[in-house]
UniProtKB/TrEMBL annotation:
InterPro entries: Heparan_SO4_deacetylase_dom, HSNSD_N, NST/OST, P-loop_NTPase, Sulfotransferase_dom. Its main location: Golgi. Residues 536-784 form the Sulfotransferase domain. Keywords: Disulfide bond, Glycoprotein, Golgi apparatus, Hydrolase, Membrane, Multifunctional enzyme, Signal-anchor, Transferase, Transmembrane, Transmembrane helix. Residues 241-445 form the Heparan sulphate-N-deacetylase deacetylase domain. 3'-phosphoadenylyl sulfate binds at S640, K762, G763, R764, Q765, Y766. Its EC number is 2.8.2.8. The active site is at K544. SUPFAM superfamilies: P-loop containing nucleoside triphosphate hydrolases (SSF52540). Pfam families: HSNSD-CE, HSNSD_N, Sulfotransfer_1. This is [heparan sulfate]-glucosamine N-sulfotransferase.
Amino acid sequence: MPARQKVLLFLHPKSTVGKGIQIALEFVRFKFQVQTGDIRNLPVLTDDNKGRYAVIVFEDLFMYLGLQSANRNALDKYCREYNVGMIFLLHYHKKPEEDPLLISQVGNFPLRYMTDVRLKDYEINETSPLLRITRPGAVVPLPTPNDWTVFFPYHHTYTAVTRKHRNTRSLAFDSMGHGAADMEQTIENQEKLYPVILDRGIYDGIQRVFFGSTLKFFLNKIMFLDALSYLSYGRLSIPLERYFQIDIDDVFVGIPDTRLLISDVNALLNFQSQLRKNIPGFSFQLGFSGKFIYSGTDAESEADRMLLKMSDEFLWFPHMWSHMQAHWFLNATKLCDYMELNRQFAIRHNFNTSSHYAVAPHHAGVYPVHEQLYYCWKKIWNISSTSTEEYLSLRPDHKRRGFIHKNIMVLPRQTCGLFTHTMVLDMYPGGQEILLEIIDGGSLFQSFLYNQINVFMTHQSNYGNDRLGLFTFDREIKFIYKWTNLRLKYEPPMALARRYFNIYPEEREPLWKNPCAQRRHLEIWSEEKNCNSLPSFVVVGPQKTGTTALYWFLTMHPHVKSNHPSPTTFEEVQFFSGSNYFKGLDWYMSFFPTPENNTVIFEKSATYFDQQVVPKRLTMLLPSKHVVVVLIDPAKRAYSWYQHMRSHNDASASKYSFYETITAQPGKAPPALISLQRRCLDPGFYARHLENWLEYIQSQYIVIVDGDLLKSDPSSAMFNLQTDLGFTEIYQYDKILKFDKRKGFFCQLLPTGKTKCLGRGKGRQYPDMDQLSVKYLDTYYKESNTKLTELLRGINKPIPGWLSEKSVT
C-alpha cells in the first residue's frame, strides 16, 4: 500500500469498541496498525521524511487527552506537518457516582461535552462537508435506552455533522436531582447540541471528527467511512458503486408445501422488473437441481412448469443434478457423468447458462478444494466463476475473500439472514425483530456498505411461503437509498468476477489452510483425506548452507521420514515458493507417506527461506510447526552459490570472476550478471529474512542450525536439532557417521563396514575466495550480521560459532 494510506489506531486492550473499528477497516481492506494499552512510546510516524499514516483514530478521546505532553505534542506536530486528521470516539464510561448532568471541558479545546444523554431523534446536517456516502434523510427515531455524548462547541472551527431534531425534545434524565431542572432548561435553550462534529482545523491546524458514541449505530458506520475519506483527502475512500448478485439456490428442491406457487413466480418476475428500472440488467440467478422437478404438490408442479416456460427471464446456474456434494466423488469420471445429467436437463429446457457460473451444494469442494470438482466444472460446463462463504473460513464474515484456482474465479459469498428453513416471518428465529435489525442497519446493510461486490445466497423456499427474499431485499434497497449515496449496480457473474479481481488483485493467489483446523472444513472435505501426512517440520534453507546434508542425516533417523522425491526438483518439493503452490493441496499431500504411530514427517526445500511469500503460505497450512534454518557465514554462502552456478555452466558465472559478480553495478552490468549477483548476495541478509518469518510464526517454532557445526561435527549438530524439535527418541548419530578423508565430509557407516556418501555434486572443493572479495563481503554484511546477533539474542536462540567470531573481530 502506498505511503500514507494507512490508519493508526489507539485502542484499549480487548475492547469491543476497538474491535468494531478494526472490523470496519478489515471489511473495506484498509491497512492499519494498532497501539494498545498504556501509550508511553509512539510508533514510528515517518519513513524517509514521509508520513506513514493518513488518519489517526482514538477509540476513546481520553486516551488522547491522557497522553504524556511530549507524545501528544509529537502527534499534533505530525498531523500539522503532514495534513493528517484524527477521529475520536467518546462513549459513556463514567463511574456511577459521577454527576450525569455535568457539562465538562474537552481538554484545552474550545469544546464541552455531556455524557449519558438520551436522544429521542437524530438527523444529518445536509450542509456538512464531511458527507460523501451519508445521505441526509428523515429524522431517525432512536431506540431506548441509548447513552450518547453530545458536544457544545464555542468556536467556529466546529461544524455539525449530526444534530438533534429541532422540533422534538431531545433529552431525558433518569432522575432529577438538585439543579436538574435548571440544567435541563439550559440544554433546551442550547442551539448547538451535536452528537457528531467536525473540527475543520481553524483553531489549531488539525482537522478532527468527534463521535459521541460507538460504531454500533448504523449512521456512525457510514460517517466513519466518510470521516476517513474526508480527513485523508480521499486516499482512504472506496467508490460509491455497489455491485450485487442474488443467487436463488435449490430451485426445484424442497418438500411439498414449501415450494413456489404460480403467484410466487409472478411476484418474483414483478420484483425483478421493478429492480431493473433503477438497476439496469438486473437478473436473479437461479440454481437448479434438475432431478427434483415436479416433486412438489400439483400446484407447485404447475409453478415448475411456469418457471420452465419463463426460463428466458432469468440466468441459470448448475447446482448439481440431485444436490449431492462434490467431495463424495473421488472418481472424476463419475462426477463428470453426474454433472452431465444436469447439463442435458438444461439443454432440454433451453436454460440460459451463458454466465458460466456454478454453485456447489453446501459449498463442498470449492474450499477446501476438491480437484475433481474444478476439473468437471471446466469439462462439462466451462465454468469461469463460482462463490463460497468458506474461504478463508465461514466466520468471521468480514474476512471472507476471493481466490482463483484452475482458472475459476471464486468470489466471497454473503448471507442475508435467510436460510432454507426461514420461510415465515412470524417464525423467524428469535422473532421478526431480528430480521428487521439485520436489514435496517444491521449485517445485511453492512454487507452493502463495506463490500464493493456482494454475492448473496438465498434459497427457493425464501421466495415462496412469506416471500421473505423479496421482502428482505425490497426493504434493504429502500433503506440504502434513504440513508446513503450508494449506487447499486448489476453485472453478470463472469463480468462481476473479473471486476472483483481488478479491484482486489492481491486476492488472485489462494492461501491453503489446514482443512483439519476447522470442523466445518472437515465436514466438506473428503473422508479419504487426512492431515496426518502433513509434515511436522520443514527445513527452509537457505540454499548452499548444508541443507542437503541435513536432509540426508535426518533420513537416517529410524523414526523420521521425508517427502517422496520429485522428478524435477529431487528431494525438494518446492511447494510454498513457486508455481507448484497453485497445483493445490492435494498435489502437495501426494508427496508424503502415511505415517506410522511414532513417525515424524518432514520436508526440505531450501528455496523457502528468502522468499517473501513463503512464511505466510507455510504457516497458514502448517500452523505451530517448526521451521529449521541453517546458517553459515553469508560470504561463504555467496561464494558457494557462485561456484555452484559455475559448475552448472551458467554463462555469467563462467564469464565473470566472483569479485566482478558481487561488485557489478545495476544499470551498468548485464541483467543476467545482476540476477546472478542477487542470488549470491540477497539470501545472506539473514536478519531481514528472519524478521519476515517472525511476522507469521512465533520464535519458539524457529530452529537455528549452525551450518559450520553441521559440517565439522554433525553428531553434535543433530543432537541439538533433535532436542530443539522435541524428539522423544534421540538418535545417536556418532554411531553411524564417519569422516571420509577422501571426500572431505562425513558419510554414513553401513552395517557392512562400508560408507555411503552424498553424490559427486556435494562437498566439492573450491579454490579459496580471493582476499578482495573477502574484504568486500565482510564490509557488505557487517551491519546485517550485527542485526542477526541482536535478533537471535532477542528471541533466545544460540549464536552460531562463525557469527560469534565475527562479533569479536
